[in-house]
Design brief:
This protein is an alpha+beta fold. It is built from 16 helices and 33 strands.
Length: about 800
């Protein structure tokens, strides 16, 4: 049975170590805040707008510590005495609106100091992931004696910067779903250059309008911005070059620019110049362009994951011949003064970046072109090396994919959506645990999906998102995410807080079975996988949905998969009522699938009782739910792997295919399944794509699953009891002769070294102290203890 025995060791019960956010000063949650939310008077509170706020204050001496708590709607950047110290708020929803905390003391001086904040709201054009009530800003001092000096209120100053206007996106040209918000058009001659500095004169700025007092959750009659501490660290940021110049037009005498990372260039008056930069690999962050002169000039930036040919195909991503660029863009309009530095309000994604420069009567000097990388600060704590060096490229590209798909939330993709979908996020979270050992973004994701549940009990398919979308199978994957957390982290309290969410999701599904006892055509979008046989339908605004008529073995068995995990969660929580209820229900569902969808002649499960459609997906679920076991499961997986008439799993669902190989002891075949990933590398991709070409997204987190499977399947390292208190290690090396790997564990680090010769395994397993387990190899088992374990099997 997939439902495990209750094995909560004393080690698990005793551990309290967690990578949750550190404690915040209690005043952050003090209901007696004296700061107020402020806004720019006479501005549209829900429309597009960019605003600058300033507060001047004097200090006789610099305190050892001076904390502030800051938030805004939609976004802010914060400076103290010209030094940028933070961005936020980390995305959430109105009932859980994050608030960042900063210590100003290292940046202060005696005399006059300046707090400055840029606040913006993209209004109806804002990213779908961005919730909003109205444009506003709040800052609260951490110590009461500084309230009158720092807190937002009528003593601040504000300017509406009308030099900002939104750009695009051009949906007609892009011809795809893209919801990351607009680009920026910035007029240099309208920009208040130097506004973050102490010497800037803001005497003609307005007094802000006070909206209402700030308050933490649970206070007041209205749910507006219910402030909570930020639960994740600041994003990692560092500067890097834009890339190598691959193409120059408009400067016929400057062919020497190609192949360089030119940082300074003078563009003559009355000319048009295009520079195509190739970063060599995809990246995410903020472009920065510094100029002098060039009044009347225009600099258009266009970002793309890849260039396209005349048929709008990408082909080899390294090749530029006969290809052009289309994509999201920004426009900078220099005002003509010295050292004007333009950057964007929000992150951009690109491998290829084109600068289209048009000058007027004055030449333009491009003084500096750079890019500030920005992503969640994951650190690669795991390692993987093998006798097949080509696997290292897959590991590196997979980790880059995972990194670029992680910001203030997980992203499905950084270029097109930046939305946190449950289906993607489950895979991303496992990668985070195995490669980085960091569970903070996973915790935030599980909480957000829990908070997204609506009146029927299901979670939203993606969250945060102001555009509600429901994919019922994704609510089931959320339950699996909670179980993943249970098995990998020793924090039973966090799991217990999710119990009602699990119950309400399953309550909804209890109403969805048909007379055959199967789940079939339920409401909402029953997405399973992006197969060619289940295409997108513009009329139905739906795709990736298998045949559901008469009941679906795929959806029914996915429900079983969630029920089994839910039963184990409630067993560990000490609630046998729900455990037994869910196990009985799961058994009824499995029997219904056997009765109505098992095709004895073909030895396969059909997708529906009509037995007209057959997929890998249905049969993968049959294995993962123990609907078939033992030799029958092995035989079924062997058929799944060779029968090309079956609807094939794409990159996303191959994650579950690989788990079925592991469960049936066939994971020695895992490495041979990596050919699609090798083909992406051959096509010059620097991250792994959403699906095989032609694909929309060149960077999609669910395709980074090899970074999990190299450790969990090839090395075979998996938890065997809650909290990773005990370990199961079952290597599946396939053709590999040698493997060395390590991965973070809640109690330290696991290291393995394998050498396989003719079926004989030698090597060593190093476990953290007080962690035990079992190593399985072929038909042999070896007990493992904390410390060094020598292998000779």
């Amino acid at each position: 049975m997939r439902v495990h025995l209750l094995l909560i060791s004393l080690v698990f019960l005793a551990r309290t170590v967690s990578t949750a956010a550190p404690p915040i000063n209690p005043r952050l949650l003090d209901k007696y805040w004296t700061a107020s939310w402020i806004e720019c008077p006479q501005s549209d509170p829900t429309g597009y707008g960019v605003y600058h706020f300033r507060r001047s204050f004097d200090l006789d001496e610099v305190p050892g510590s001076l904390g502030v708590h800051v938030s805004a709607d939609n976004r802010y950047k914060l400076w103290i005495n010209g030094e940028e110290i933070g961005k936020g708020p980390a995305r959430g929803d109105l009932a859980n609106w994050p608030c960042e905390s900063y210590n100003l003391a290292p940046f202060l001086k005696t005399g006059t100091n300046i707090l400055a904040a840029q606040v913006w709201n993209a209004g109806p054009l804002r990213p779908v992931a961005q919730h909003s009530l109205r444009t506003a800003f709040v800052l609260q001092a951490d110590q009461a004696r500084y309230d009158g000096l720092l807190n937002t209120g009528a003593d601040w100053r504000v300017l509406h910067n009308e030099g900002y206007t939104p750009v695009g996106p051009d949906h007609d040209t892009l011809q795809t779903y893209i919801v990351v918000g607009p680009g920026d058009r910035i007029e240099g001659d309208s920009f208040p250059w130097g506004w973050t500095e102490t010497e800037f004169d803001d005497s003609n700025w307005q007094q802000p309008a006070v909206i209402e007092p700030a308050r933490p959750p649970g206070l007041g009659t209205d749910i507006r911005w219910q402030l909570i501490p930020r639960s994740i660290p600041p994003m990692e940021e560092f500067h890097e070059p834009l890339g190598t110049v691959r193409r120059v037009t408009g400067l016929p005498d400057r062919a020497d620019l190609e192949g360089t990372r030119q940082q300074k260039l003078t563009v003559p008056a009355n000319s048009r110049v295009k520079l195509l930069f190739d970063r060599g690999q995809l990246t995410v962050g903020y472009p920065e362009v510094r100029t002098t002169g060039g009044a009347g000039a225009s600099i258009r930036l266009t970002y793309a994951e890849a260039l396209i040919d005349e048929n709008r195909q990408k082909g080899n991503r390294d090749e530029i011949g006969g290809k052009s660029i289309i994509g999201l863009g920004d426009q900078f309009l220099p005002g003509g003064s010295e050292h004007e530095t333009f950057t964007t309000l929000w992150i951009r994604t690109y491998r290829y970046l084109e600068l289209d420069i048009r000058t007027g009567a004055e030449p333009l000097v491009l003084e500096d072109l750079s890019f500030r990388f920005s992503a969640y600060p994951f650190r690669q704590a795991a390692t993987f090396f093998s006798s097949d060096p080509s696997l290292q490229d897959i590991w590196d590209v997979g980790w880059r994919t995972a990194r670029l798909c992680a910001g203030e939330t997980y992203f499905d993709c950084p270029y097109y959506e930046q939305l946190q979908y449950v289906g993607d996020t489950r895979i991303q979270a496992l990668i985070s645990l195995y490669v980085a050992g960091d569970d903070r973004l996973m915790r935030k994701a599980i909480r957000l999906f829990d908070q997204s549940r609506f009146h029927e009990g299901l979670t939203r398919s993606r969250y945060p998102s102001y555009d509600p979308q429901v994919i019922p199978p994704y609510s089931l994957f959320w339950i699996n995410m909670v179980h993943d957390f249970l098995m990998h982290r020793p924090d039973l309290g966090f799991v217990r807080d999710r119990r009602m969410g699990i119950i309400t999701v399953l309550d909804w599904y209890e109403q969805q079975t048909n007379p055959r006892g199967l789940v079939g055509e339920t409401p909402y979008w029953n997405f399973v996988d992006w197969t060619d046989e289940w295409p997108w339908s513009p009329e139905l605004r739906s795709g990736g949905v298998p045949d559901l008529a008469g009941g679906s073995s795929i959806l029914s068995l996915q429900l079983v998969y969630a029920l089994q995990d839910a039963a184990h969660v409630f067993e560990v929580l000490g609630e046998p009522f729900y455990r037994d209820q869910y196990l009985r229900w799961a058994e009824r569902l499995r029997q219904s699938v056997l009765d109505h969808c098992w095709d004895a002649d073909r030895g396969l499960f059909a997708d529906t009782p009509a037995m007209q459609s057959y997929s890998q997906h249905a049969n993968i679920w049959a294995v993962l739910t123990d609907t078939v076991t033992g030799d029958e499961a092995v035989d079924l997986m062997n058929k799944v792997m060779v029968d090309e008439s079956l609807i094939q799993a794409t990159f996303y669902f191959k994650f579950y295919l690989f788990q079925a190989l592991y469960q049936t002891g066939l994971a020695d075949r895992y490495l041979e399944q990596l050919q699609p990933w090798r083909e992406m590398l051959e096509l010059g991709l620097s991250t792994f794509a959403e699906k095989p070409d032609p694909t929309r997204s060149d960077c999609h987190a669910w395709s980074a699953s090899p970074n999990y499977d190299f450790l969990a399947t090839v090395c075979g390292i998996r938890p065997s009891s809650p909290g990773f208190a005990t370990v199961s290690i079952e290597p599946h090396l396939g053709p590999l002769q040698e493997v060395e790997a390590s991965m973070p564990h809640p109690a330290g680090e696991i290291r393995v070294r394998y050498k396989s010769i003719g079926g004989h395994l030698e090597g060593e397993v190093l476990l953290p102290e007080d962690v035990s387990g079992i190593l399985k190899w072929r038909n042999a088992e070896l007990p493992l203890h904390g410390g060094s374990n020598i292998l000779d099997l």
